[in-house]
Amino acid sequence: MMICCIQTLLLLGAQLALSIPNNFFYHNFRKGNGNKEIHFSGVKLHVDSAQPAVFAATGDNVTLPCRFWYEPELTSPREPRRGHETDVVAIGSRICLLVRGRVQIRQDFPGDATLVMTNLMLNDTGRYHCEVVDGLEDKSTSVYLELRGVVFPYQHPRGHYHLSFLAAQQACEQQASTLATFSQLFQSWKEGLNWCNAGWLADGTVQYPMTRPRVPCGGDGLAPGVRSYGRRHLQLHRYDVFCFSSTLQGKVYYRQPSHTMNLTEAQQACQEDGAQVAKVGQLYAAWKLSVLDRCDAGWLADGSVRYPITRPRRNCGPSEPGVRSFGFPPPQHKHGVYCYKSGDELM
Ligand SMILES: *[C@@H]1O[C@H](CO)[C@@H](O)[C@H](O)[C@H]1NC(C)=O
Ligand SMILES: *[C@@H]1O[C@H](CO)[C@@H](O)[C@H](O)[C@H]1NC(C)=O
Ligand SMILES: *[C@@H]1O[C@H](CO)[C@@H](O)[C@H](O)[C@H]1NC(C)=O
């Protein structure tokens, strides 16, 4: 299986792998052995998916439907090869992970080539192409796998525009999230995300979502939309980042302090509960997916201070719902804290 990874990467080169980071291909090979007649007898191969898109959450098991058939029907149906893991070939940077055990091709009936994935991860989002190869014929269809979640803008503690692409990727991972894809950002823009600072996306482009154009954000003459700076230099250029975070397996809560705490004391307070200081991605997921609403500023793991508001009200920030941020105060400042307790520890 490792060989498959290496071969495919060599074939495509890092460039292409990067330009389609969220495209996955899997093949159901039905290698031609004496079946050339098919190409000369007017028999056509068809491939179709019953669903153009599948929605899921992290930790879920999903099936991405795909089936193929011939028209006219074959008089002597050919035995499909039994599916096993080596039939799954994914092109792009994720091959190795995909092939290692979490993915299988289901073959419940002749012509079934449904992909079954278990224990979805944040970065499994993307378009999956099901390609059926039979002799010279080669047909494909695709299914978009979308994880329910939330996109949030993130900046380095030292301020705006400090992150290279790699640093942006690490920043998201450290905050329990992954780099957002363009379609995730676009979806968030449709839901009202309005952000004036440009951030990296998973495909190496830099963009920002604008619902209310105004002068400091590219001018008020422009239409609302997701504005793109295009592909930027991955090492040299520095921006903020858009991260994506999904369903929590645990719980985020505000710890009511007997006294307000500096960052060290906040860490100890969560530890006393058998929990940890919540990461930014966890707070956003709790706000968006578990409707956490709390008008108290609290420390988070990255040293920032924020609070989640789903029902905007007086003295709790702007009139739209959102996670409010006080930036990164000095660690000796005193605040409450948001802790995160994982699913295992809750039981
Ligand atoms: C997913 O499938 C695995 C193995 O088939 C199973 O152990 C697990 O409980 C399933 N998870 C969910 C969320 O259904
Ligand atoms: C996807 O996420 C997993 C778990 O966080 C991580 O180990 C893996 O490296 C990520 N893969 C890619 C291609 O980013
Ligand atoms: C927080 O306060 C404790 C005393 O309660 C002190 O020992 C510690 O150095 C302080 N930490 C920071 C980051 O200011």
From TrEMBL:
Entries under PROSITE patterns matching the protein: LINK_2 (PS50963)
Compartment list: Secreted, Extracellular space, Extracellular matrix
The organism's place on the tree of life at top rank: Eukaryota
Record has Disulfide bond as a keyword: yes
A cellular-component GO term for this protein: synapse
Source organism of this protein record: Dissostichus mawsoni
Chain ranges of the Link domain: 150-245, 248-341
UniProt protein name: Link domain-containing protein
Entries under InterPro entries matching the protein: C-type_lectin-like/link_sf (IPR016186), CTDL_fold (IPR016187), Hyaluronan_bind_Proteoglycan (IPR050691), Ig-like_dom_sf (IPR036179), Ig-like_fold (IPR013783), Ig_sub (IPR003599), Ig_V-set (IPR013106), Link_dom (IPR000538)
SUPFAM superfamilies per record: C-type lectin-like (SSF56436), Immunoglobulin (SSF48726)
SS bond list: 196-217, 270-339, 295-316
UniProt GO BP: cell adhesion; central nervous system development; glial cell differentiation; positive regulation of neuroblast proliferation; skeletal system development
